[in-house]
Amino acid sequence: LPTPSEFIFPFEPYSIQVDFMKALYQAIEHKQIGVFESPTGTGKSLSLICGSLSWLRDHEAREDKRCKELSSKQTGFKNNVDKKNKNGDRQSAMEQIKRQEKRKLQLKKIRSSIANYSLNKQNESKSNSYRKKVKIYFKSGSHHIFFQIFFCSRTHSQLSQFVKELQKSPFGKQTDPDGFQVTMVGLGSRSNLCINDEVRKLKSMNERCLEMQKNSKPEASSEDGNHLTNTIVDSILDIEEVVKKGRSLEACPYYASRHAVPLTQLVVLPYQTLLHKATREASGIKLKSVVIIDEAHNLVEALNSMHSCLVTAKQISKAHGQLTRYAHKFNTRLKAKNLFYVKQILYVLQNLLHATKSMNFVPFTVIPTKGGASISKENKPKLNSRLLTVNDFLFSSKLDNINFFKLLRYCERSKISRKLSGFVERFEQNALSTANTNSTPPTKSEYDVTMASPLMHIESLFAAFSSANQDGRVVMTTDSESGPTIKYLLLNPASHFKQILDQSRAIIVAGGTMQPSSCLLDQLLPESDAEKHRSRIAEFSCGHVINGATQLLPIALSSGPSGEEFEFTFQKRRSLKLVDEIGRVLVNISNIIPGGIVCFFPSYDYEKYVVQRWNEAGITAKLEMKKKIFREPKKANEVDKLLVDYTRCASNKGPGKQNGMLCGLLLSVVGGKMSEGINFSDELGRCVVMVGLPYPNSQSPELREKMNYLDRNMRHTDGRSAGQLHYENLCMKAVNQSIGRAIRHRNDYASIVLLDKRYLRPSITSKLPTWISDHLTNHERFG
Ligand code: SF4
């Protein structure tokens, strides 16, 4: 397909948006792996929507044309040497035409079903004939009939934002019945979509929902459920709107949206649903499509965390007890093969329990790193940990003779954990009612305890034990709070990304700050096919919509007003002189910046230490003469209130205006409760100050093992090992995430002050987004 020079867009697009859409269109057309960087505020979501859906529209038109041409050549193949292939082509073309026709028919049926439903509601006597029609519709719609685009993002609110943008775009208005109309569904978890308030209260809502369905039909197979699915397919609705419709129809939005997947071209879904194989398959996702992963700066971390798992000794013990009772009760009724596997699971659980009890911990040795980390009060390991390869762990736990592939397959096929959950529910309820002479029903918490199925959780550990030895590690830990735990730590996310890479037509990873992209790709491309996939990579990075020369002032400050050098290494950062110097910089900035100031600290501990010192040294009092100070809370439920108060203060809508200056100094923490999804646009962040370089704790056994893994498996770059680069990249990603939130739209402006002389090192500067680094200036001192 030739790349269009113009794209339909809700308004006249900026040139960077046109460039973005052109690059996106080409990447999808040429089946590439696209890395797209577009700073927040540049309309990335709209560009993704209009670029990718323009390609989908053109692709469908091309396929239509190709199929019609091929099918019309029916008699021309008779004497052709390539007859077999061409006939094959023709056959597939005919099938495709049939699919296209079926699709149009489906959409017509959906519309007429919706119309009939309304009529039917007015005249209940017609309901029987209507029910018949709906059932037929569901049978025929059970397989995929569209080429699909999967759009995934990390959080529910990011997905909602995307759907809102789609609704605003020209593709969100379904007015042309014969032209290109996008059909869309948003997938969410039961906790987002369930409308049964009793089930919603439970921790074990998945199990309870499945349990309820044993006794009754799933709610989505009802007439109202079908109508809800039809409504989803026929409109562009975000999850809140689907839930609202589900409540008014009394039909389950969770199942209705899953039923809509095969009927839609655009599926909007969270990371977990796309990136986790079992969840993907359970949701009916077929990958032969285009995959767009937004907010992909944390893709590697997301893959690592969703494929890592942690089980506590308490969970193992509980699962062992439940399964023992289950085996005892059904001993004579279980088939020999099932009994064999149940006994094998019991053996595994027993040995895991034994392993947690007999852990002879060796605390980690502390190795200083080039990033400046060493032993300090803050980074000393607080836990006793032991780290082993999977094979070593299985050998030492006497589990090396267990075939975890087979065991896992048995668990999946027999649904043993679900059965166990049902069994425990009955067992515990009986026990409770026997013990309770008043026959009071179990309380909600009692019910939660009985419904929880630790075996389901432990099955993820079985999956981890069946993965390649080099792909992960087992970390055994104990602490006073959670007791002994066994954790599987994934080191090689490429092993879980491979299927997506191999099966998708094109993959687009997009984000506001994708630099350094080599680090992301090195970890996502499987070593065996790395060269093949490297040839597919296309990178696109666009500048900001603002004029960097007049709307942005990024400064790297090497020392403060009294000449104290800024270098916030772990050894130096608790120096009182240094802490006082941060205060002096902030007092000076507060004197000249009329709007809100956000100051980021590397950790909660350090922020607390600094504020304590400022209180003693009278710096807080000086700051408060100019700005009302807000401190980021550690508890997530206190964030909203703080934000409301800070916003009112910074935008001068609340009390706190002093001397004609707008007030508000927010002390925030990198990677803290406000680290994502909160913007400091306009007056909320006229200046962002970053104190030091927020390197992660280099003594964390998990980080050290990850660095060792990268050193062993990845190449050196510019004389530096992959582990060291990873360590630095984690830090710079956190910096970019924090400082990038000051500019959110084309009329916004802000200054960014980086307090540390290390920001002037080329290796650090090169990891800042170019729209910041291009304008970065160095100031020896300030004030
Ligand atoms: S069927 Fe739907 S509404 Fe009912 S419990 Fe399950 S998720 Fe909730």
UniProtKB/TrEMBL annotation:
<keyword id="KW-0175">Coiled coil</keyword>
<dbReference type="GO" id="GO:0006974">
    <property type="term" value="P:DNA damage response"/>
</dbReference>
<dbReference type="GO" id="GO:0051536">
    <property type="term" value="F:iron-sulfur cluster binding"/>
</dbReference>
<dbReference type="InterPro" id="IPR027417">
    <property type="entry name" value="P-loop_NTPase"/>
</dbReference>
<dbReference type="GO" id="GO:0003678">
    <property type="term" value="F:DNA helicase activity"/>
</dbReference>
<dbReference type="GO" id="GO:0005524">
    <property type="term" value="F:ATP binding"/>
</dbReference>
<dbReference type="InterPro" id="IPR045028">
    <property type="entry name" value="DinG/Rad3-like"/>
</dbReference>
<dbReference type="InterPro" id="IPR014013">
    <property type="entry name" value="Helic_SF1/SF2_ATP-bd_DinG/Rad3"/>
</dbReference>
<keyword id="KW-0479">Metal-binding</keyword>
<dbReference type="GO" id="GO:0005634">
    <property type="term" value="C:nucleus"/>
</dbReference>
<keyword id="KW-0408">Iron</keyword>
<dbReference type="GO" id="GO:0003677">
    <property type="term" value="F:DNA binding"/>
</dbReference>
<protein>
    <recommendedName>
        <fullName>Helicase ATP-binding domain-containing protein</fullName>
    </recommendedName>
</protein>
<comment type="similarity">
    <text>Belongs to the DEAD box helicase family. DEAH subfamily. DDX11/CHL1 sub-subfamily.</text>
</comment>
<dbReference type="GO" id="GO:0016818">
    <property type="term" value="F:hydrolase activity, acting on acid anhydrides, in phosphorus-containing anhydrides"/>
</dbReference>
<dbReference type="Pfam" id="PF13307">
    <property type="entry name" value="Helicase_C_2"/>
</dbReference>
<dbReference type="InterPro" id="IPR006554">
    <property type="entry name" value="Helicase-like_DEXD_c2"/>
</dbReference>
<keyword id="KW-0413">Isomerase</keyword>
<dbReference type="GO" id="GO:0034085">
    <property type="term" value="P:establishment of sister chromatid cohesion"/>
</dbReference>
<feature type="coiled-coil region">
    <location>
        <begin position="83"/>
        <end position="110"/>
    </location>
</feature>
<dbReference type="Pfam" id="PF06733">
    <property type="entry name" value="DEAD_2"/>
</dbReference>
<dbReference type="InterPro" id="IPR002464">
    <property type="entry name" value="DNA/RNA_helicase_DEAH_CS"/>
</dbReference>
<keyword id="KW-0539">Nucleus</keyword>
<dbReference type="GO" id="GO:0046872">
    <property type="term" value="F:metal ion binding"/>
</dbReference>
<dbReference type="InterPro" id="IPR013020">
    <property type="entry name" value="Rad3/Chl1-like"/>
</dbReference>
<dbReference type="InterPro" id="IPR006555">
    <property type="entry name" value="ATP-dep_Helicase_C"/>
</dbReference>
<keyword id="KW-0347">Helicase</keyword>
<feature type="domain" description="Helicase ATP-binding">
    <location>
        <begin position="3"/>
        <end position="346"/>
    </location>
</feature>
<keyword id="KW-0378">Hydrolase</keyword>
<keyword id="KW-0067">ATP-binding</keyword>
<keyword id="KW-0411">Iron-sulfur</keyword>
<dbReference type="GO" id="GO:0006139">
    <property type="term" value="P:nucleobase-containing compound metabolic process"/>
</dbReference>
<keyword id="KW-0547">Nucleotide-binding</keyword>
<dbReference type="InterPro" id="IPR010614">
    <property type="entry name" value="RAD3-like_helicase_DEAD"/>
</dbReference>
